[in-house]
Amino acid sequence: MTKEKTGIINSFESFATLDGDGIRFEIFFAGCPLRCVCCHNPEMWEQKGQAYTTTQLLKMIKRYQPYFQQRGGVTWSGGEPLLQAEFLLELGQHLKQEHIHIALDTSGCITNDRVEKVLDLCDLVLLDLKQNTEEKYRQYAKGSLAQTIKFLNLCQQKKKKVWIRTVIIPHINDTLKDIRAFANLVKEYSCIEQYDLLPFHTMGFSKYETYHIPNPLQEEKDLPIEAMEPLKQELKTLLPNVKVE
Ligand code: SF4
What we know:
By secondary structure, the protein is an alpha/beta fold. The chain has a single domain (about 5-245), classed as TIM Barrel, CATH 3.20.20.70. The chain has helices at about 55-70, 85-95, 115-120, 135-140, 145-155, 175-185, 205-210, 225-240; strands at about 5-15, 25-30, 50-55, 75-80, 100-105, 125-130, 160-170, 190-200, 245. It has a nine-stranded mixed beta sheet. Strand 1 and strand 2 (about 25-30) form a beta hairpin. Helix 1 (about 55-70) crosses helix 2 (about 85-95), helix 2 packs parallel to helix 3 and helix 6 (about 175-185) crosses helix 8 (about 225-240). The radius of gyration is 18 Å and the shape is globular. The model has no long low-confidence stretch (mean pLDDT about 95). Iron/sulfur cluster (SF4) binds near residues 34, 44, 78 and 107.
């Protein structure tokens, strides 16, 4: 008998509404190779958590299935779920058998054969676009813009529905010039249905203290909602076929 794979999971949210349409069962996978300065889940950086088998997770998910209705489903988030692509493949195949909608919340930092197979199972990709130049990506996320675009190319090729998400951070990517640069990066992609601009907030700051992790933005304040409006307006003008939220 083949042994079931296990996923290392940090936590769950049973009635999530922010990461994808409808009511969702959200799974936060432990481990992330990036180090975004605005990360509000630094406790998920290390791949430490509880191991769950596909059978155990399916049992939990099916309890909430009646709430999914037409639009909801399961969201794979983290951390970076693609670090556990083998497990996602196994879980995803079972979810598809149950006709459960799958959203993948990712930074797009990995592309390989396994990740491609995982992507084939996903109905929606929530893709972070953290910065608009390679230099800033490396400096503020310890990731790569080129890699993120490579992942976006894969989504386009596979005709996956994509929502792009960018956290607007004071003094780092909060100008109209930044918005124009972001728009320029994504304007040719017909797979993009929505672009969410999210204001930087300090809600996760206490976690840095709890886990004794240096917080590079500790002096910053929440970005006021009013500051977001002109940026959203600019993005709407530049991407007329994309829903800007
Ligand atoms: S990709 Fe997400 S989990 Fe990883 S460091 Fe960035 S914000 Fe945090």
